Amino acid sequence: MNHAAGFVQARLAKNLKTRNTPKLRFKEDHSIEYGSEMIQKLKELDI
Length: 47
Fold this sequence. Notes:
Shape: rod-shaped
Helix content: 40-55%
Structural class: mainly alpha
Number of helices: 2
Oligomer: single chain
Number of strands: 0
Largest sheet: none
Number of domains: 1
Distance between the termini: 40 Å
Radius of gyration: 19 Å
Strand content: under 5%
């Protein structure tokens, strides 16, 4: 995704009414995977 950041940033710059467009950086989000693991652990506890 980071390889497309320049393209996305250029498209944003055309639509935003700001002097500068922030540099975009993408970071992988593990929260869904982590949440699924926590749900599984809770199920194993039979609470």
